[in-house]
């Protein structure tokens, strides 16, 4: 980064300027100072839009000797003095959304200004006349303003001038105010080193912790003066940063906080007496201005501007002339900064260190996107590859981006692997080193962003460099050399199909390449590496203490070491074309050049510093075709230096970055404008509108001579033997003048064989117009050449010329216009070439358009796969017959999960077995079985059995059930459900809801089998027969056999169990008792103890003690029965254990059963002592008696059967009651269970099987 002062404005009457504010949205600059001066200005040209780009557009294709005028030299487009304040203006601030300016002076007067017809006028005036205004701040949306006074008064008002609230803080000297980004809280600072937080309505919330500051400045320590709070700045724009809240104190301390509740802030010391701090618009850095005079006794100090990044790391220090610096403010772009010093306004230009690079065919640059959630250190960047020839842009999103570097044809990108992905991979898998945070990915792209190669390195990368076959990365103490693939990867590995980072980690886990990270070379732990440079021969490492090491590639052996003069810290390195000279820019922006071939008379060794030192250098580039020519950016000027003669050419005004230096032409790119336009407006203009070509002084002199005489120009070129590009200029000018002999000599000098052949061709032509056309084509003036060919009635020459340069779109236009011979064949060939050209640039949709016109099915398949256009591939299945293409389509569709279309393609390609394998892998068993039956393939059952056995070993019962169900084997599926139920009961993990679902599934499977058997009369086996087919499928125990006889009974058991509990919780004790009584029929599914406990509980709450008494009798008996049953089962396997152990276990079981029986007895005595049960049902219990519809006997309404005729009453699945009246009975169409019609009306689905209810009224 480089900062320099390039403009100074003097305020009238030499009044000192105390405050300044630069409007980010409207570009006005407001400044105020002594004697009530308030001035609003606007520079005529701003760097935030396309204005500079539009200027550059006029220079497209021109090789000029000058570039755009420096920004700071523009005149004002607005300059107005606002004359309403009578005393020193202390503060100015902008209301950006409403375009208002607010100013205040030391007398307490506040004025709100508005812009009307190009001038600023007073809109509102407020004069409290009690105290000094010490702070003003608008909310981010401009709706509210908060004003604080030094006597403790706080006033909050709206944008229309209405007062919202006000309050007085007693015994408090207020000094600063700031709103939170969401406008919900206000931060107010005092001179007592306190910052209090209020909500938007003035209610006190809390105090911000300043424990670190208060500890340092202990009040009991009288030797240290308490610092004053200078400003509170809370970054409010959309971008997320880790430390948006900034508190600055005049002693140089700055506290960075994540929010107003941050208990662990970051403290930095600027080492100056701070006067102002300001965030730039994007939040990437903040500026701190102040004076080195830390106390009144030290006298006058120096003014400094310091720039820090958003994490508080120092970026740049600049000395500012003058006696006292007061305030600073950024413009919207973050490229200029306004400073108020004494009675002047200085403008500082900031040249940022962009992540960008230049290649032969394109440029690449990165700009920040939003920070990834949860990790402020992992920054996402968007890389844009902008191709020069086609003006196409290719975008790549890179998470964890660190930096990039470029070579002539490729770009290397370094990104940090997130901790989450690193932990998934396992830190021990990287050479046994547990350093997941140091895992970085090295990715190589070509000039349009197509991935070429990638690699992982276990190194905390800080620097990177690239040559033709190696990428070098370095940390603070080590470096690593990665030799990447030489050949380019084909277009079918476009970035959209590249595997994820995690898959890359898994892929490299067993790769020998990753072991190469062990060869990282340790350099120094005490002297950190600060920059690196690479050529084909050497690697240069520069260290913070000024030591520079030279390593020989590819063995990475150190061959030379030398020291930078004056103890300077290197910041940028560059090797010349043959690696004989090294240019170094240190952190103070001084240039040094080291010659490896020179002899040092003092050390008697090879290598010495050249006697050239230049100041204010911030960019440089060696010539790619000359060993000693070096282009430099010095402030706003471009200078070319000869490294041998140590001569400087005349400086040329320039404000861009050097993209290339070749053939004595310096290509300058206005990267500031390009990146700003890319972020804000997404430009669609040509890349050349941001690029300038600046000629060196040698070319300018040669062109001046050529205007007089080509012979003199020829002699001039002979005096410059190492500048072959001069012959190119002479030959081109000779061709323009059609002086073929001179052009031929120049071609021979530059060894241009193609040019010599052109001269021979031109000499054979008799038509001067055709000569002119050939010359124009050679000089890349294609439009002019085409016009000549057409005027001479030779359109085929224009067509051939356009073919040679690859302008196939224009070739099609010419063919359609002139209809030359073989028109149809030529058009088809050109369309294919045009489509192939779009493929090379990854423009798949355009390629598809032309491939379809020529029926290039093979290329269409490739394009559709890259586009992931499934519909296009599916359409191709019916159109093509090539089995290889059909196989490729099938494989791709299968990878995307489109099984049916994938199978169709495979079957058409006669790969039926692969189609079946695809179905099996995707668990489409029914489709696999159908294919096997259709094509008479018998091995599908064995595949199914193997898959089921694999799932069974992993105890994945649910997956097995689904597999059997899809394979139309409902019997085996039901058997597996029963196995799952048994496993859950053993593990005691199945609750009643889950059990009901599983038993209901058995019933549904049974119903599905019966339905399929009815639909297909050819099937000889029913689902029930399938379940009973073999003991190895069903099992031979009684419970399974009973389940087969009535597949819905288990679902009924748990349904009525849940229904009973629901009635109990809802307080419907009568319904709970009636439902619980039906549970007596399901003792094989629910324990008798649970059943009679529910009956006893429900009947007790129902006050039906006769039923309750019978339930307790059953409970007392069941406790003993459960023991004997358990004891019997245990004795069956008693021979497996020691007899003493068996006897001990039996005695414990007896004690538990007896204890349970005694508790039931005690509970029964307590209940029935006061509530004696009656053998006959009494009205006292409130029991309703009803007539049995079959025998007429009076029975209680809770009866489940009739005592006289033994009629069993069906339970209602909706309420649990017994259905006494068959006429009021409703039956489910699926499960066949019954319910009372009046009860089922409130349901839309069957309560048991959830089938849709249809009730005929």
Automatic annotation (TrEMBL):
<dbReference type="GO" id="GO:0061512">
    <property type="term" value="P:protein localization to cilium"/>
</dbReference>
<dbReference type="Pfam" id="PF25170">
    <property type="entry name" value="TPR_WDR35"/>
</dbReference>
<dbReference type="InterPro" id="IPR056159">
    <property type="entry name" value="Beta-prop_IFT121_TULP_N"/>
</dbReference>
<dbReference type="InterPro" id="IPR057361">
    <property type="entry name" value="TPR_WDR35"/>
</dbReference>
<feature type="domain" description="IFT121-like TPR repeats">
    <location>
        <begin position="1046"/>
        <end position="1119"/>
    </location>
</feature>
<feature type="repeat" description="WD">
    <location>
        <begin position="82"/>
        <end position="113"/>
    </location>
</feature>
<dbReference type="InterPro" id="IPR036322">
    <property type="entry name" value="WD40_repeat_dom_sf"/>
</dbReference>
<keyword id="KW-0970">Cilium biogenesis/degradation</keyword>
<feature type="domain" description="IFT121/TULP4 N-terminal">
    <location>
        <begin position="1"/>
        <end position="351"/>
    </location>
</feature>
<dbReference type="GO" id="GO:0097730">
    <property type="term" value="C:non-motile cilium"/>
</dbReference>
<feature type="domain" description="IFT121 second beta-propeller">
    <location>
        <begin position="356"/>
        <end position="678"/>
    </location>
</feature>
<dbReference type="InterPro" id="IPR056170">
    <property type="entry name" value="Znf_IFT121-like"/>
</dbReference>
<feature type="region of interest" description="Disordered">
    <location>
        <begin position="62"/>
        <end position="81"/>
    </location>
</feature>
<keyword id="KW-0206">Cytoskeleton</keyword>
<keyword id="KW-0966">Cell projection</keyword>
<dbReference type="InterPro" id="IPR001680">
    <property type="entry name" value="WD40_rpt"/>
</dbReference>
<dbReference type="InterPro" id="IPR039857">
    <property type="entry name" value="Ift122/121"/>
</dbReference>
<protein>
    <recommendedName>
        <fullName>WD repeat-containing protein 55 homolog</fullName>
    </recommendedName>
</protein>
<keyword id="KW-0853">WD repeat</keyword>
<feature type="domain" description="IFT121-like zinc finger">
    <location>
        <begin position="1212"/>
        <end position="1253"/>
    </location>
</feature>
<dbReference type="InterPro" id="IPR017233">
    <property type="entry name" value="WDR35"/>
</dbReference>
<dbReference type="InterPro" id="IPR056158">
    <property type="entry name" value="Beta-prop_IFT121_2nd"/>
</dbReference>
<dbReference type="InterPro" id="IPR015943">
    <property type="entry name" value="WD40/YVTN_repeat-like_dom_sf"/>
</dbReference>
<dbReference type="GO" id="GO:1905515">
    <property type="term" value="P:non-motile cilium assembly"/>
</dbReference>
<dbReference type="GO" id="GO:0035721">
    <property type="term" value="P:intraciliary retrograde transport"/>
</dbReference>
<dbReference type="InterPro" id="IPR057979">
    <property type="entry name" value="TPR_IFT121"/>
</dbReference>
<keyword id="KW-0677">Repeat</keyword>
<dbReference type="GO" id="GO:0030991">
    <property type="term" value="C:intraciliary transport particle A"/>
</dbReference>
<keyword id="KW-0969">Cilium</keyword>
<dbReference type="Pfam" id="PF24797">
    <property type="entry name" value="Beta-prop_WDR35_TULP_N"/>
</dbReference>
<dbReference type="Pfam" id="PF23145">
    <property type="entry name" value="Zf_2nd_IFT121"/>
</dbReference>
<dbReference type="Pfam" id="PF23390">
    <property type="entry name" value="Beta-prop_WDR35_2nd"/>
</dbReference>
<dbReference type="InterPro" id="IPR011044">
    <property type="entry name" value="Quino_amine_DH_bsu"/>
</dbReference>
<dbReference type="Pfam" id="PF25768">
    <property type="entry name" value="TPR_IFT121"/>
</dbReference>
<keyword id="KW-0963">Cytoplasm</keyword>
């Amino acid at each position: 980064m480089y900062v320099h002062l390039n403009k100074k404005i003097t305020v009238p009457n030499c009044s000192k300027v105390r405050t300044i504010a630069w409007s980010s949205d409207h570009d006005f600059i407001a400044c105020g100072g002594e004697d009530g001066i308030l001035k609003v200005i606007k520079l005529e040209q701003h760097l935030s839009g396309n204005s500079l780009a539009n200027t550059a557009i006029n220079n497209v294709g021109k090789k000029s000797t000058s570039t755009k005028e420096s920004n700071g030299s523009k005149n004002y487009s607005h300059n107005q003095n606002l004359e309403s304040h009578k005393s020193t203006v202390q503060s100015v601030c902008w209301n950006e959304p409403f375009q208002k300016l607010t100013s205040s002076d030391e007398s307490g007067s506040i004025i709100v200004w508005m812009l009307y017809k190009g001038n600023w006028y007073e809109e509102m005036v407020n004069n409290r006349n009690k105290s000094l205004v010490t702070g003003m701040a608008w909310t981010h949306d401009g709706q509210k303003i908060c004003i604080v006074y030094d006597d403790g008064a706080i006033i909050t008002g709206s944008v229309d001038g209405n007062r919202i609230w006000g309050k007085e803080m007693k015994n408090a000297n207020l000094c600063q105010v700031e709103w939170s980004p969401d406008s919900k809280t206000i931060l107010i600072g005092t001179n007592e080193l306190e910052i209090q937080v209020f909500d938007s309505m003035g209610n006190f919330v809390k105090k911000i912790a300043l424990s670190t500051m208060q500890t340092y400045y202990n009040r009991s320590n009288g030797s240290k003066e308490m610092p004053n709070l200078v400003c509170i700045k809370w970054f409010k724009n959309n971008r997320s940063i880790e430390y948006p809240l900034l508190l600055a104190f005049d002693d140089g301390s700055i506290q960075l906080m994540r929010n107003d509740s941050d208990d662990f802030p970051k403290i930095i010391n600027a080492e100056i007496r701070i006067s102002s701090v300001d965030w730039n618009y994007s939040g990437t850095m903040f500026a701190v201005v102040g004076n080195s005079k830390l106390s009144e006794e030290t006298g006058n100090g120096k003014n400094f501007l310091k720039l820090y990044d958003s994490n508080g790391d120092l970026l740049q220090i600049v000395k500012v002339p003058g006696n006292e610096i007061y305030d600073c403010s950024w413009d919207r772009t973050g490229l200029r900064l306004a400073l108020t010093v004494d009675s002047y306004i200085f403008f500082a230009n900031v040249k940022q260190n962009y992540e960008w690079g230049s290649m032969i065919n394109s440029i690449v640059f990165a700009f920040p996107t939003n920070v990834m959630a949860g990790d402020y250190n992992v920054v996402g960047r968007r890389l844009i590859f902008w191709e020069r020839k086609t003006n196409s842009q290719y975008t790549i999103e890179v998470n964890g981006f660190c930096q990039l570097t470029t070579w002539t044809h490729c770009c290397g990108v370094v990104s940090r692997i997130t901790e989450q992905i690193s932990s998934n991979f396992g830190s021990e898998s990287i050479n046994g080193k547990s350093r997941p945070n140091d895992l970085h990915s090295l990715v190589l792209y070509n000039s349009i962003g197509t991935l070429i190669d990638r690699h992982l390195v276990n190194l905390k990368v800080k620097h990177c460099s690239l040559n033709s076959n190696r990428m070098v990365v370095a940390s603070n103490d080590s470096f690593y050399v990665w030799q990447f693939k030489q050949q380019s990867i084909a277009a079918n590995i476009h970035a959209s199909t590249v595997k994820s980072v995690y898959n890359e980690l898994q892929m490299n886990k067993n790769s020998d390449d990753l072991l190469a990270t062990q060869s990282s070379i340790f350099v120094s732990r005490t002297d950190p590496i600060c920059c690196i440079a690479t050529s084909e021969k050497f690697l240069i490492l520069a260290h913070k203490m000024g030591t520079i090491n030279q390593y020989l590639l590819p063995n990475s052996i150190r061959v030379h070491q030398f020291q930078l003069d004056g103890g300077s810290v290197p910041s940028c390195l560059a090797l010349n074309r043959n690696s004989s000279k090294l240019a170094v820019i240190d952190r103070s922006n001084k240039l040094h050049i080291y010659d490896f071939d020179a002899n040092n008379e003092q050390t008697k060794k090879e290598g010495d510093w050249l006697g050239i030192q230049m100041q204010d250098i911030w960019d440089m580039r060696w010539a790619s075709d000359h060993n000693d020519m070096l282009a430099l950016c010095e402030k706003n000027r471009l200078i070319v230096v000869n490294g041998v003669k140590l001569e400087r050419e005349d400086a040329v005004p320039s404000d861009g970055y050097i993209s290339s230096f070749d053939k004595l032409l310096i290509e300058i790119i206005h990267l500031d404008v390009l990146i700003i336009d890319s972020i804000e407006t997404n430009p669609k203009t040509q890349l050349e509108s941001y690029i300038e070509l600046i000629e060196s002084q040698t070319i300018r002199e040669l062109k001046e001579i050529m205007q007089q005489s080509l012979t003199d120009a020829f002699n001039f070129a002979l005096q410059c033997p190492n500048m072959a590009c001069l012959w190119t200029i002479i030959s081109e000018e000779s061709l323009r003048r059609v002086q073929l002999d001179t052009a031929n000599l120049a071609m021979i000098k530059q060894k241009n064989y193609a040019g010599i052949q052109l001269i021979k061709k031109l000499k054979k032509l008799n038509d001067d117009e055709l000569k002119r056309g050939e010359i124009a084509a050679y000089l890349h003036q294609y439009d002019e050449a085409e016009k000549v060919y057409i005027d001479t009635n030779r359109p085929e020459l224009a067509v051939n010329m356009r073919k040679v340069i690859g302008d196939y779109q224009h070739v099609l236009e010419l063919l359609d216009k002139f209809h030359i011979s073989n028109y149809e064949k030529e058009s088809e060939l050109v369309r294919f070439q045009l489509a192939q050209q779009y493929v090379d640039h990854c423009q798949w949709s355009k390629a598809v358009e032309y491939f379809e016109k020529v029926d290039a099915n093979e290329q269409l398949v490739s394009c559709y796969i890259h586009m992931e256009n499934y519909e296009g591939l599916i359409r191709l299945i019916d159109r093509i017959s090539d089995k290889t293409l059909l196989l490729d389509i099938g494989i791709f569709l299968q990878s995307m999960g489109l099984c049916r279309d994938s199978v169709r393609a495979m079957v058409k390609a006669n790969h039926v077995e692969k189609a079946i394998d695809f179905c099996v892998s995707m668990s489409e068993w029914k489709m696999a079985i159908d294919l096997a039956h259709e094509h008479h393939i018998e091995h599908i059952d064995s595949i199914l059995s193997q898959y089921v056995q694999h799932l069974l070993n992993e105890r994945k019962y649910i997956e097995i059930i689904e597999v059997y169900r899809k394979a139309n084997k409902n019997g085996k599926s039901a058997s597996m459900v029963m196995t799952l139920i048994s496993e859950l009961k053993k593990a005691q993990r199945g609750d009643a809801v889950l059990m009901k679902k599983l038993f209901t599934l058995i019933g549904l499977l049974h119903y599905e089998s019966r339905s399929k058997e009815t639909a297909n009369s050819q099937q000889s086996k029913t689902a029930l027969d399938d379940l009973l087919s073999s003991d190895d499928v069903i099992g031979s125990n009684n419970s399974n056999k009973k389940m087969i006889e009535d597949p819905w009974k288990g679902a009924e058991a748990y349904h009525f169990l849940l229904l009973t509990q629901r009635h109990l919780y809802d307080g419907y004790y009568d319904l709970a008792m009636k439902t619980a009584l039906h549970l007596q029929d399901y003792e094989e599914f629910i324990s008798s103890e649970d059943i009679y406990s529910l009956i006893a509980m429900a009947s007790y709450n129902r006050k039906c003690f006769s039923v309750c008494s019978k339930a307790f009798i059953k409970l007392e008996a069941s406790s003993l029965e459960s023991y004997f049953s358990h004891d019997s089962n245990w004795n069956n396997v008693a021979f497996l254990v020691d007899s003493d152990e068996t006897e001990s276990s039996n005695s414990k079981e007896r004690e538990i059963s007896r204890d349970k029986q005694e508790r039931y007895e005690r509970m029964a005595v307590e209940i029935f002592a006061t509530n004696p049960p009656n053998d006959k049902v009494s009205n006292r219990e409130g029991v309703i008696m009803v007539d049995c519809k079959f025998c007429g006997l009076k029975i209680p309404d809770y009866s489940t059967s009739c005592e006289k005729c033994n009629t069993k009453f069906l339970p209602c699945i909706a309420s649990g009651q017994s259905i006494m009246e068959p006429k009021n009975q409703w039956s489910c169409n699926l499960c066949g269970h019954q319910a009372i019609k009046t009860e089922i009306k409130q349901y839309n689905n069957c309560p048991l099987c959830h089938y849709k209810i249809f009730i005929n009224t």
